[in-house]
Amino acid sequence: MIYSLKVKNIYSIGKEQLFDFCNNKLEDSSVAETKFGYVNKTSCVIGNNGSGKTSMLKAITFFKWLAEESFYKLKIDDLIPFQPHYLYENEPSRMEMIFNKKDKLFKLEFILNEKIILYEKLSMKKSNTNKFKNVYSVSRYNDGFKTLYSEYLPPVNKKERDRLKIKSNSSLFSYFLNTGALSHLGLTNIFNAFYSNLTEAGRADIPLLYECFDISDLLEKQTTLKQKEVIIDTLKTFDIGIEDISSDKSKQFIFKTRNFDNAEDKSVINFVHGKNQNRFNVPLLFESDGTIRSLSLLFPFLNVANEGGILIFDEIETSKHPNIIKKILSSFEEYIQKKNDVQILFSTHMPLLLENRNKSQIFLVEKTDCINSEIYRLDEVEGVRNDENFAVKYLSGRYGAVPRSEVEIVKET
Asked: Which of 9, 118, 332, 333 could lock onto 93 through a cystine, CB 3.0 to 4.6 A?
């Protein structure tokens, strides 16, 4: 689980910001009790358009990619795929994540620009009473390559060192993960399962037809009976008429798809509507946009819930009724009540989704001077109580992070 992420000069985040996912008490089942304290399983990000909500979520997605995949995904001359704040392009960017794995707490730090990871450090502690101890560190300032190892990780040989020195745009952490050098510490990844609908370019919206192909394939080949039951039970709460998944393949829609020189048949599954003599099948493609998008949410939910990890959804409400999103979140939180290794982080423009959260689970984002994204938790706002109607108070402007009126802007100028 992520305990915190510290970010500076990434996307619209110019000045250092801290995303703290910790809680000071076990308020309910939406908070995980871990060896190193309490951590929120669900966190919500809300703010005005252009405030930096997506930047916050992209920062986590990018950190995961940099830490786990960069060594084998980047060529030597490739730029590191992120954008510093345009006002501070000539300054280095900084990221620091604290996360737990196998009853240990790790801190992974990066200082980088678009060409080079200038500094990287992994440290670890085994209990709350201990301080973080160095596992390894590397610096690449002034064309140098200085490494510092510890009792937890012996130095690499000269051949490996030369290879790591040349690959200055990639993390050593990703190299060590893939070679198994950190497995004795319980590190084979940061997250067992990870899902994000964001890429470097923003939200990764998949065309509906391909969503239908993916959902059909998952339901027919990769979903357990228990998972199908959860999906159907959740769909029934949407009150959209779906009663079951059809097992009749004779009426499935078949599409001819072409990938270069290969033609492939793709089938789209049917859903059963109605009851008794009024039962009929509807191909998934002819369900509503919102139904398809809602279904596509359930699969990463179940995957991460079963494997342990994190889900990141930017604008989770897109194409969905607010009550349906609330039911999906409620079903997910009920499903993971007894799990302490799962997190969901989502952004929204829908204040209704602030309900059933505690104040430490709500992040607010706003632009200061229309330049830097500032992130703060609701429990940092003076006088806020957990029994408040967060949606109403947010819309009234009590917490900030809402669009300003023309009058307010004129007064500032």
From this structure: 9
Burial of 37: CB neighbours in 10 Å, binned 0-12, 13-18, 19+? middle
- The token duo for 163 is 């290879």
Contact 287, 211 (CB under 8 A): no
How far, in whole angstroms, is CA 187 from its chain's centroid?
19
Asked if 256 and 395 sit in the same domain, the reply is no
At residue 211 the predicted structure's pLDDT band, cuts being 50, 70 and 90, is confident
Answer yes or no: are the C-beta atoms of 344 and 45 closer than 8 Å: no
Q: How far apart are CA 311 and CA 403, in angstroms?
A: 27
The tens digit of pLDDT for each residue in 148-170 reads: 999 899 888 888 888 888 899 99
Domain count of the chain? 2
**Res. 230 pLDDT band, cuts 50 70 90:** confident
Tell me the residue range of the domain where 217 lies: 208-294
Check whether residue 168 and residue 54 sit in a common domain. Answer: yes
Using pLDDT thresholds of 50, 70 and 90, give the confidence band for residue 260.
very low
Q: Which whole-number Å values give the CA distances from 345 to 264, 265, 353, in the listed order?
A: 36, 36, 12
129 shares its domain with 34: yes
Question: Which residues, including other chains, have CB under 8 Å from residue 235's CB and lie 6 or more apart?
Answer: 242, 291, 294, 295
Residue 200 within any structural domain of the chain: no
Q: What is the pLDDT of residues 27-54, one digit of tens each?
A: 788 899 999 999 999 999 999 999 999 9
Burial of residue 117 (CB within 10 Å: 0-12, 13-18, 19+) is buried
Q: Which two tokens stand for residue 17?
A: 């910001």
pLDDT tens, position by position, 232-254: 888 887 767 888 888 776 655 56
CA-based max dimension of the chain: 77
Give the CATH number, domain containing residue 370.
3.40.50
Q: Do 339 and 372 lie in a common domain?
A: yes
- State which of 264, 294, 324 marks the end of a domain: 294
